[in-house]
Amino acid sequence: MTAHRRRFLQTLTAMAPVALAWKSFAASNDAKKQTVRIAQFDPSGKPKGIVELEKVIKPDAEWRKQLTPLQYDVTRREGTERAFTGPLYNNHEDGLYLCICCGTALFDSKTKYESHTGWPSFWAPIAKENIAGKEDKSYGMDRQEVECARCNAHLGHVFDDGPPPTHLRYCMNSASLTFAPRAKS
């Protein structure tokens, strides 16, 4: 056996424990699923409590299969539908507004109001746990983006020009929401 081949085999033998350790580390990280605390509600809007659920994470191809092109553009690419075009901006029925991507309850019709902006507007989310926010400085503006806490779907933005009691306007895209009429309790 040549010296060169002997060194090569020694190097491989020395690296085996490192490779096994890395494989074990990677497998344990894959096994740790991300979770999030979400407030759940029954179909009548009554709170059922806070639960810890697995975060909804899907490959881009799965989101594209599940959503219409507009829903995909809005929720997964932080797009915005044109004002006054969404089916929910003028919805006045009693019920709950859910995330189009994962079904998490986000808003109650009891907090919806007419903002005259062309998008569904609410003065509060159904539960603070169910939404997340992040700073958005796009288009030269300084605003707060609103996302679904469970699947990170882009919903819209929150502004401080809403009505009492919060003085907030959660300006949401219809394409990011689905409506469920309130069940009789």
Structural class, by secondary structure, is alpha+beta
Number of domains: 1
User: How much beta, percentage-wise?
Assistant: 25-35%
Distance between the termini: 82 Å
User: What spatial order of strands do you see in the largest sheet?
Assistant: 5-6-10-9-8-7
* CATH level 4 superfamily: Peptide methionine sulfoxide reductase
H and E string: HEEHHEEEEEEEEE
The CATH topology turns out to be Metal Binding Protein, Guanine Nucleotide Exchange Factor, Chain A
The shape, in one word, is: globular
Name of the CATH architecture? Beta Complex
Question: Could you please describe the fold and organization of this structure?
Answer:
With 185 residues, the protein is an alpha+beta fold. The chain has one domain (35-181): Metal Binding Protein, Guanine Nucleotide Exchange Factor, Chain A (Beta Complex), CATH 2.170.150.20. The protein is built from three helices and eleven strands, in the order H-E-E-H-H-E-E-E-E-E-E-E-E-E. The strands form three sheets. The protein has a six-stranded antiparallel sheet with strand order 5-6-10-9-8-7. Strands 4-3-11 form a three-stranded antiparallel sheet, with no helix packed on it. The protein starts with a helix and ends with a strand.
